[in-house]
């Protein structure tokens, strides 16, 4: 921060206009955001538009249409001829900078008689890094701010004005309403407050810190690969990926059931072999503890089901719906067998998530976590589990509507026990997949093991789990998309985050290192819905 970055930060903070340096884009009469941006850029004292926020790129509008619109705005404002004689922009089809003049001619920059200093210059997102054009000595640039904009990209964009360090050129900022709201929330400002350069820098630096935290795992993986291959070049070979589908295809794909069964069988055999090799201090295989815990959970579930009859409402006592010594005894046994803890209590206690206000969200009290699920890492006393959370991929769904989140090994062990049981007392679900069937209400027998009959409705397969429980589990997982904004799970999410809880929702998603997915997502829409759908 004392070298180039510090110098650029100092230059940006020393701009002549501080308060009110950010123009909040207002869309009038339903005009698109890109048109609102061009209206501001072509009506003020600006000589260049630097789209570091990718507002033009995300609009899906061709550069030819943008240039045509800019010419119209410049003519309406009386700037053509008086200040500008054309528009300079980069054309992807010709792969070079073009200069368009008033007569409609488009020539390559090196062939055009018009210098770029006499034109309005548009730097698209890709050209905000590395492009070097000679602008007016007193040029003013309009820099766009987009979701999650970080320090490096902002500085690269502002650096296109080469005379910033001499104090003759300057920059100002344009932000859509959602980005302006995020800046105010970061700086603790009320909505009417004007935004200055110092507020932009504070927001950008926070985005940079969060982006660096999200990249730690990738850096660690690269460092581990380097350490493993150092001195052993034969280990450096990795599969070569050349097809686009290898990079961008959906991780979920259809596969024949026999191949899945064979792969799971091989995986189970490998797990048993590792369990035989890795033993604890008294010689007991490592996998035995998980198997014993799984059998203990199922035995308590079956015992609870016997007490409650065919309804199998095995966790009713945990919801305080029954009284009596026998019920309390079952609750104690079940807690002891798997170390069950309600999700709200776990967030406040065992996990100690930061900020502490996360525990104040109205999480469903019918979502439970096992001890193994919660303990993904050994934390220092008083430390928060942010960044060390286990993803809730598997869960036991009871007919009572309770949902028990499991660790991976617990799910594998319980699955084996369920296969042996004649009448499994619960359904074992895949949490990420169950929402799709839940919303569609379609038959989904593969979502459960044993307890689901072919052709059963998704709600029955889910064991009576409600939308509130699913919404709590998905938000705790850091999910940002909830199957569309018309479904009941999205409605439950709106109720969960009602009352201006945007900051807490962002904190929960950041704890899962998924902050970049929040912008324009279902989770953000739920925070802004204000009322139930």
UniProtKB/TrEMBL annotation:
Region of interest: Disordered? 248-292
Transmembrane region(s): none
- The answer, when asked if Protease is one of the entry's keywords, is yes
Q: Which UniProt keywords apply?
A: Hydrolase, Protease, Thiol protease, Ubl conjugation pathway
For this protein, the Enzyme Commission number is 3.4.19.12
Q: Which reaction does it catalyse?
A: Thiol-dependent hydrolysis of ester, thioester, amide, peptide and isopeptide bonds formed by the C-terminal Gly of ubiquitin (a 76-residue protein attached to proteins as an intracellular targeting signal)
Q: Where is the composition biased (Basic and acidic residues)?
A: 268-280
Q: Which GO terms describe its molecular function?
A: cysteine-type deubiquitinase activity
Which InterPro entries does UniProt cross-reference here? OTU_Deubiquitinase
The protein's name in its UniProt record: ubiquitinyl hydrolase 1
Where does this protein come from, organism-wise?
Answer: Monoraphidium neglectum
Taxonomic path: Eukaryota, Viridiplantae, Chlorophyta, core chlorophytes, Chlorophyceae
């Amino acid at each position: 921060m004392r070298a180039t970055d510090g110098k650029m930060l100092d230059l940006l903070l020393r701009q002549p206009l501080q308060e009110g340096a950010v123009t909040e884009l207002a869309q009038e009469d339903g005009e698109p955001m890109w048109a609102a941006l061009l209206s501001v850029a072509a009506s003020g004292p600006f000589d260049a538009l630097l789209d570091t926020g990718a507002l033009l790129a995300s609009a899906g509008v061709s550069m030819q249409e943008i240039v045509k619109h800019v010419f119209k705005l410049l003519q309406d404002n009386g700037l053509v001829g008086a200040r500008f004689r054309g528009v300079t922009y980069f054309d992807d089809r010709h792969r070079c900078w073009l200069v368009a003049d008033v007569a409609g001619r488009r020539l390559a920059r090196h062939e055009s008689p018009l210098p770029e200093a006499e034109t309005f210059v548009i730097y698209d997102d890709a050209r905000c890094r590395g492009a070097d054009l000679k602008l007016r000595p007193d040029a003013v640039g309009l820099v766009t701010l987009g979701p999650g904009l970080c320090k490096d990209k902002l500085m690269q964009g502002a650096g296109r004005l080469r005379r910033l360090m001499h104090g003759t050129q300057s920059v100002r900022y344009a932000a859509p309403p959602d980005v302006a709201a995020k800046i105010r929330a970061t700086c603790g400002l009320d909505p009417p407050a004007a935004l200055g350069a110092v507020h932009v820098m504070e927001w950008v630096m926070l985005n940079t810190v969060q982006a660096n935290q999200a990249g730690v795992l990738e850096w660690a993986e690269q460092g581990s690969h380097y350490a493993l291959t150092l001195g052993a070049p034969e280990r450096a070979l990795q599969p070569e990926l050349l097809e686009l589908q290898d990079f961008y295809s959906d991780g979920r794909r259809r596969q024949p059931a026999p191949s899945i069964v064979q792969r799971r069988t091989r995986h189970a055999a490998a797990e048993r072999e590792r369990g035989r090799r890795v033993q604890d201090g008294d010689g007991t295989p490592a996998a035995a503890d998980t198997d014993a815990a799984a059998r203990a959970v199922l035995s308590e579930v079956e015992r609870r089901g016997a007490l409650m009859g065919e309804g199998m409402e095995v966790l009713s006592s945990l919801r305080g719906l029954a009284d009596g010594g026998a019920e309390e005894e079952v609750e104690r046994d079940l807690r002891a067998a798997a170390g069950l803890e309600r999700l709200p209590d776990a967030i406040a206690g065992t996990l100690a998530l930061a900020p502490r206000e996360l525990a104040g969200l109205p999480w469903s009290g019918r979502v439970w976590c096992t001890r193994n699920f919660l303990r993904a890492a050994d934390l220092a006393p008083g430390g928060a589990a942010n960044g060390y959370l286990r993803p809730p991929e598997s869960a036991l769904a009871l007919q009572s509507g309770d949902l028990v989140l499991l660790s991976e090994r617990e799910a594998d062990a319980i699955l084996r026990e369920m296969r042996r049981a004649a009448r499994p007392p619960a359904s074992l679900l895949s949490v990420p997949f169950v929402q799709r069937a839940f919303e569609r209400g379609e038959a989904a027998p593969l979502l459960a093991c044993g307890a689901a009959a072919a052709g059963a409705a998704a709600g029955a397969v889910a064991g009576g789990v409600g939308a509130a429980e699913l919404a709590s589990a998905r938000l705790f997982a850091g999910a940002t998309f909830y199957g569309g904004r018309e479904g009941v799970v999205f409605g439950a999410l709106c109720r969960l985050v009602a009352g201006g809880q945007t900051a807490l929702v962002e904190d929960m998603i950041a704890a899962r290192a998924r902050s970049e997915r929040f912008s324009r997502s279902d989770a953000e829409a739920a925070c802004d819905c204000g009322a139930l759908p």
